[in-house]
């Protein structure tokens, strides 16, 4: 989820249990994570209700390669992901990393940053490609030790892609109650998340 694109313009196989191979930031624990996907229309009546664009890319869906799920009745819907193809989408060939997420700070320096995410006994890695959910300036949480300021969606502190949903073993395909631990890392270990690495800058 994101703020209006105009504002933005102005400014991993099975889940891995190995540690990141580079310096990492402090952990954020017990964070509610919801699921979003490229092409989702969450609310057509709000400026940040479409995932056809992101806070960092006004052509996100086009540049990604299409709907990161399956088209049903003209709507881009999510789909389950599993280890059989590395949690990659089954109905589109992505041109960018399908292991993506957002965090509630709108800052171009965050785009493409690597994040390590734990849930139960699973560890997966993804890249920041959007801002949200719902809040876009929560520096005390993202870069500090505060709890997320967002009160919507059960107080979620990040959205994750369908690939990360499957990799982490979320209970629900599009739920809002799964909890994770996460931190920034400089680089991930090899895994399905390194098959395609997004390098495009903020648009």
Helix and strand element order: HEHEEEEEHEHE
- What's the average pLDDT? 87
Structural class: alpha+beta
Number of discrete domains? 1
As a whole number of angstroms, the C-alpha radius of gyration is 15 Å
**Terminal residue distance:** 16 Å
Total of DSSP H or I helical runs spanning 4+ residues: 4
The level-1 CATH class = Mainly Beta
Task: Choose one word for the global shape.
Answer: globular
**Biggest beta sheet attributes:** 6 strands, mixed, barrel
User: Which residue ranges are poorly predicted, with pLDDT under 50 across at least 5 consecutive positions?
Assistant: 1-22
Protein model, in words:
With 203 residues, this protein is an alpha+beta fold. It has one domain (5-194): Beta Barrel (Barwin-like endoglucanases). The chain has four helices and eight strands. A six-stranded mixed barrel has the order 1-7-4-6-5-8. Strands 2-3 form a two-stranded antiparallel ribbon. A hairpin with a 2-residue loop joins strand 5 and strand 6 (122-131). The chain starts with a helix and ends in an 18-residue tail after the last strand. The model is unreliable at 1-22 (pLDDT under 50).
Essential attributes:
single chain, 203 residues, alpha+beta, Barwin-like endoglucanases, six-stranded mixed beta barrel, two-stranded antiparallel sheet, 11% helix, 22% strand, disordered N terminus
């Amino acid at each position: 989820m994101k703020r209006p694109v105009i504002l933005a313009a102005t400014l991993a196989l099975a889940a891995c249990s190995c540690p990141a191979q580079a310096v990492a930031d402090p952990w954020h624990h017990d964070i509610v994570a919801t699921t979003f996907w490229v092409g989702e229309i969450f609310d057509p009546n709000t400026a940040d209700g479409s995932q056809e664009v992101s806070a960092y890319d006004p052509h996100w869906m086009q540049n990604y390669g299409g709907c990161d799920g399956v088209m049903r009745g003209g709507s881009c819907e999510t789909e389950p992901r599993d280890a059989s193809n590395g949690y990659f989408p089954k109905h589109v060939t992505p041109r960018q990393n399908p292991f993506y997420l957002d965090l509630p700070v709108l800052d171009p320096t965050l785009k493409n940053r690597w994040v390590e995410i734990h849930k139960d006994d699973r560890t997966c890695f993804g890249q920041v490609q959007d801002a949200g959910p719902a809040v876009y300036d929560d520096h005390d949480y993202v870069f500090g030790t505060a709890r997320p300021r967002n009160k919507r969606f059960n107080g979620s502190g990040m959205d994750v892609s369908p690939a990360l949903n499957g990799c982490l073993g979320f209970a629900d395909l599009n739920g809002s109650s799964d909890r994770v631990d996460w931190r920034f890392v400089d680089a991930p270990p090899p895994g399905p998340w390194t098959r395609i690495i997004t390098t495009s800058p903020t648009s």
